[in-house]
Amino acid sequence: MAKYKQTEAGNGQGMFLSVNLKEQLLPGTFEYMLDKLIGNEIDISIFDKNYKNDKTGAKAIPPRVLIKVIIYGYSKGVKSSRGISELCENNITAKALTDDMKPHWTTIADFISGNEEFFKKIFVKVLTYCTELGLVGGKTFAIDGCRLPSNASMDLSGTKKDFEKRVKLYRRMAERHIEKHKRKDENGEVDEKTEKNFQEQQKKLNRQVEKISDFMEKMEYRESTRGKEMKSNVTDNESAMIHTSSGYIQGYIGIAVTDKENQIILNAEAVGSANECEHLPGVMEKTLENIKEAKIKKTKRILLADKNYFSEINIKACKELNMEAIMPDSQYKRRLGAKKNNKFIINDFEYNKRGNYYKCPNGKRIIYKRKYNKGDTEVKEYIASVKDCRNCPLIQKCFSRNKDNKITRGKVITVAPGSLCNLLREKLNKQEYQDIYAYRIQIIEPVFANITNCKGLNRFMLRGKSKVNSQWQLYCMVHNLGKCLNGFNKRDKIA
User: Fold this and answer.
1) What are phi and psi of 9, to 5 degrees?
2) CA 446/CA 458 separation, integer angstroms
3) Contact 242, 255 (CB under 8 A)
4) Residue 49 and residue 51: Cα distance in Å, rounded?
5) Is residue 203 in a domain?
6) Fewer CB atoms inside 10 A, N or C side of the chain?
7) Per-residue exposure over 383-414, b if at least 16 CB sit within 10 Å of its own CB, e if not
């Protein structure tokens, strides 16, 4: 029979180990940098205003401890307050960061949800530190939004009529449930378990009716840009119904403005709207304030954005902020494809200002048809004759066939000559601006991939714009601090 070694520890004998918590933070790691920065090089004394226990009251958990453990938890993919609290109990690195303090999950949750304005200031302090390390170029930026679900039920979204129908439905369900229970009771089929289930179901339906009815009393009419009633949400009315590649979600859009040099986030804001493009003027104004406060050098600035942001208002706002906007219109990729396949684009059509018509490469007129507004932009449509297009020898280079494989009439759709949108379209027909715009994806998309995929933010855990904004800014801070690690190690000569 084989013989194996046995130890006293294997028999349940206790062991006494001497542990120095600070030695658990190894130089060169993210946790070591975090411990050195928060409260030292990055001043967080502004949080002291929240505490009034200098004469009476219990001692509080220091804000530096809470910030360090929250950032550490987010960097490891732990996004819930309960999860971060468990780290303080069981994780030796979290114990070292908190000096073995064990904040309750409610303390962590209250700290995240109640300090939006302070987090904005700490975000700028982290940005200033990034600037001191030489990580911010300050010349070319990219803006985009990350669409994430919120802690709200999409089933409780709708207009006032929708809610009225839902209340009636729940009341009918409750009545039918009572009638069904009465029939069972008459037949002697009701036992203790059945009675308990009946009472629980009735309470659940009554709670839903009461919850929706209370919301309807306080509910305000909200109108969309198209003049229709916007849907409201009972659990989080500041969130919005947002369209994503995988369908609709009830949530927020986390907007980030990122620098080209090292993908440092210059400004972060979460908005509860279906489209983030309308927030560009305000976001860029705040971005320039952050840049000024972080003492980033003044230079000619360029903003890159996708086609969702293309509008006269946004281009004008960038111009007023002394920033060159490069954002394509909805036909940009089609024009590039046409140019690549040696087909005609709008520049190949000659415009006659006196007669207000276009002349195609075959010398035929494309006459003015109508004028309409698309958003805030005035659009003009010109259309060719069916006869001219059908017999045109250049039709294959000009317009493709439709679904029925029939030749379609040539159309030219353009904005008012001289408008900012039209000038930007002309710029993007040049190779120089196309090369600049090509950087947009590699500037902004890896940032969202890091926050959502690597750091695990697949949904917001809080309700209300203010609280969601705090969580989004904290995650963006985690991203920026991660970019600081190499610069911190080089500066402190850590191998």
Assistant:
1) -65, -35
2) 15
3) no
4) 6
5) yes
6) N
7) bbeeebbeebebbeebbeeeeeeebbebebeb
Residue-wise pLDDT tens digits, 17-40: 778 888 888 998 999 999 999 988
Identity of the amino acid at 22 = K
Report the percentage of the chain scoring pLDDT > 90.
Answer: 37
Burial readout 197-226 (b: 16 or more C-beta within 10 A, e: otherwise): ebeeeeeebeebbeebeebeeeeeeeeeee
pTM: 0.83
pLDDT, one tens digit per residue, over 282-307 is: 999 999 999 999 988 888 899 999 98
- 290 and 215 co-located in one domain: no
Q: What is the pLDDT of residues 248-278, one digit of tens each?
A: 888 999 999 999 999 999 999 999 888 888 8
Phi and psi at residue 339, in whole multiples of 5°?
Answer: -65, -40
Q: What is the pLDDT of residue 225?
A: 64
175 and 271 inside one domain: no
**In angstroms, rounded to a whole number, what is the distance separating the alpha carbons of residues 319 and 328?**
16
The whole-angstrom separation of Cα 338 and Cα 450 is 35
Say if residues 107 and 66 touch (Cβ distance below 8 Å).
yes
CA 467 from chain centre, in angstroms, equals 14
Instruction: Identify the pLDDT of residue 297.
Output: 85
Tokens of 14: 């206790």
Residue 375 · residue 226 · CB < 8 Å:
no
Domain boundary among 383, 418, 453: 418
The residue range of the domain holding 66 is 18-113
> 332-347 in b/e burial notation, b at 16+ Cβ within 10 A?
beebeebeeeebbebe
> Do 141 and 278 fall within a single domain?
yes
Question: At 402, is the pLDDT very low, low, confident or very high (cuts 50, 70, 90)?
Answer: very low
Q: Are residues 324 and 339 in the same domain?
A: no
Domain membership flag for residue 121: no
Domain count, the chain: 4
Same-domain check for residues 214 and 166: yes
Q: What is the mean pLDDT of residues 426-434?
A: 86
